[in-house]
Design brief:
Order of helices and strands: HHHHHHHHHHEHHEEHHEE
Strand content: 5-15%
Number of strands: 5
Number of domains: 3
Number of helices: 14
Length: 362
Amino acid sequence: MFRTIFKKLTPINFYWLIFLIPILSVGSQLPLKLQVIFWLLIIVWLATYFIIYLSRGWLTLSAIWLQLGLDAIFSLWLGYPYLFIFTGFFIGSERLEKKSRLSLVGGYYLLAMGLYIGAMLTLKEGNLYEALINGLFIILSLPVAYYSSEQRRRHIQIVQDNERLTYIVKKAERERIAQELHDNLGQSFSVLALKAELAKKLAVKDPALASQQLDDIAKTARADLDLVREIVAGLRKDLLVQTLAQESINLKLAKIGLKTDGEKTALNWSEDIQELLAQVIKEVSTNCIRHSGARDLTLIFSQDETNYYLKASDDGQGFKTDLSKETYGLSGIQKRVASFGGEVSFRNQGGAVIELSLPKKG
């Protein structure tokens, strides 16, 4: 039972308890009889703390209300209102019904701010500044916790959506491969089987014709092998849409947005162009995550009668002149583009800018 409970808790749940040290210090200085009451209340408060993390529904709601009451007791008794910060985070971050949340928010601010103002009136002048700072924590803990919780839920939802999309794409790809193999190889294997049976029957009666059938079998088998290699080679290629989807996730994890222009047009470019651009975009994305400090990466795809173009720019710190091209992976981009007969340039302009052009062949 206890193993199951502790599995649900994370190190951060215990880390926050460090901030109980000030009130524990205050309580340890009370007379012995009052210390007994103090420690009993602390144990109950800790119980509510873990119940809120581990339970759901009415039990969570009850624990938050009880903790709110204990916060008020500690505030009135010891002049220590800062436990409200914990409860504020719980109210903001827990999944609660709208009515329950509204009642808790109202109760929180009425109790916390009323008692906090009362505590401030009893403070000496020298402690007012510190009290004001702590008061801001009490006021802001609830909305900050709510915002952080919503962001975390959105992130989880995005990750789940991406996982579902990845599964759908993989499933569609498997179905496409199965269909392609069936269409291209199914009939060919049937012909091979028939020719093999015919060659077996003719081996004694007409060896010359049997030999011709075997030659046909070998020729067809080689053609099928080439076809399989072609299909496998196509599977190994990183096309643009796959790379953009993956790099969008990688950049998002680094809190960098990905913007594109002309993407739909680029998805119709030839596979060899898409494969090369996919490799370049991987290098650009990696560079942006590691070195740029940017908030956004923008990719602009365009073309004219003779060339394909890609412009990659970010709003970060740009290229540092004291670092080599290898540091940024730029030499790899240069080699790839040069191998295709293209050109590439690197410059700083409100961030790093990489522009490349690739000739249209044929």
